Every structure is written in structure tokens, then in C-alpha cells.
Amino acid sequence: MAEPITLAASLGDYLRTRRALVSPAQAGLPPTGRRRVPGLRREEVAELVGLSTDYYVRLEQGRAERPSDEVLDALGRALRLGPAERAHLYDLARPPRRSAARAAGVGRDGDALRPALRRVVEAMPTTPALIMNDRNDVLAWNRPAAALIADFPELPPRERNLARRIFLDPGAPDVHLDWEDTARTTVGILRMASGRQPHDPELVRLIGELALGSAAFRRLWAGHHVHEKTHGPKRFRHPVVGDVTLDYETFQVPGAARHLLVVYTAAPGSPAEEALAFLGGFAAAAPGR
Q1: Does one domain contain both 84 and 157?
Q2: Is residue 121 predicted with pLDDT exceeding 90?
Q3: For 74-97, what is each residue's pLDDT tens digit?
Q4: What strands, in cross-sheet order, belong to the sheet with 138-141?
Q5: Residues 232-249: pLDDT tens digits?
Q6: What distance in Å separates the CA atoms of residue 113 and residue 133, rounded to the nearest whole number?
Q7: How many domains does the chain have?
Q8: What count of other Cβ atoms lies within 10 Å of the Cβ of residue 212?
């Protein structure tokens, strides 16, 4: 039986995980001989940040009051956090109340998509595009995206979720050629979401389902990696056009909900551009898509 899994990390969980990843040499500290645990000791982090060891210990134990921006910024520098990791640190240090989550429309009702946004995506005839939220629910797609990534029109709404596809579909590694990297970034996106909205009931159910169904998910979740979807290369395998390497760009959709527009493109004159052109014609010929 799978071990129980906690939805959102506490600030202490995250600090312990991150200080274990920073060596004394990386932090500019002199060597001190053999160590019992990897990474930095609590007193070393406290020294780097300019805190008393007692206060830092209370931070890790969840007994300290809300740390100031100055303390969080210093922790981010000492623990060598990137932009997404710093944002997650702030989220964990200032968790929203349940009432605030309800007011923000967290959950399925808060994911209503403006019809015009769906039309924007569907109007892209040759390049795969979709709109997703930070739970990885796919809310809108066009025909090339359905032809390349998953047959979204034929899936029940609950199954139109990229995290479920990655971890619970045995055929996912055949579609996503960089499966391990895709799985890690997918977990990182869910970690970010859990820090922002730990009371989201849909997110609670999703993470519980993934933890029960996938050992890989449990392993990656335990690493506390966070990821903000931005841009980069992505490799797919399609049964008709074969292996395709595309570049994706992510755009934050204005509005209360965290909706992301993801567009996949190919370099001009590349084999991937030819594959997308063929795929676009293939998708256009499919009825009712």
C-alpha cells in the first residue's frame, strides 16, 4: 500500500528539503570535515540569513510568526532558490485561509473559461495550442493539439488532465519522449499550485489519485521540486508523423483563475514544420474535431 501523502508542504518541510541540496562550498562556507547529513546545518542557514539559530529552528518547526519579506528574501539567497522556488517559499510562508480560497473561486466553478478564449485557440489552424489551469486540466484545445497530444474530444472531462495522462496512462512514455523530464515538471507545477491554493478540493483529489496510482509520482512529489511553466523544447511521438520536436511558449491569461495558454511551434523549414503542416491537414480531415 502507498504511503500517505500530504498535499501542501509546510514551510518547515520546504526549508529542510532545500537546505539539504546546498553544500557548504556552494554557500561560501569553509569545510568542516565529515557530515552526518547532506547540505547545510540549521545553524549554518541561520548564520547566512542573519537569524538566531533558535528562530530558524522555530521556522522549520512551524512555531515562528509569519517571517518578514526581508527574512524570506535572505532565505531565498542562502538556499540558492530560483524565481519559481522563491515564489513557492512566499506561498508557504503566507498560506491563504479557506475563506479566501472560496472567495477566489477555487475549484471547478472558478475554472469557467470565457467563450472568446476557446475561439482564440480553435482559430489557430496549423499549430497545436491549448488552455490549461495549474491543476493541469485542459480547458480548451484546437484540432492539431488533439491530434498530437491526446484525443481530448473523446475523453471524459475528468480525463482531460495532463497530469493524469502523464502518470496514469501506460502509453504516456510513447507520446512524451522526454517522459522523466515531463513528469518532473508536471509535479513541479502541481507543487506550485498546492502552495498557492492548499484548500482546493479538486487539487486534493487529483494529488491523492496520482499518489495512489503512480510510484513515480510519489517519488517525484517527495522531492519538493517546483516549476513554473514558461517555454522550452518538447518532443512528441505521433503514429502518423513520427518524432516531432517543437518549441512551446506559455502565456498567462488575464483573469482571476490561473489559466495558461500554451502554444507549440516549429522552426521555419524544419522537419517539424513539415510534420505540423501534415498534422494540420490530418486533423482538419477528422470529423467533429
Answers
A1: no
A2: yes
A3: 999 999 999 999 999 999 998 877
A4: 138-141, 129-133, 259-265, 242-253, 231-238
A5: 999 999 998 999 999 999
A6: 10
A7: 2
A8: 13
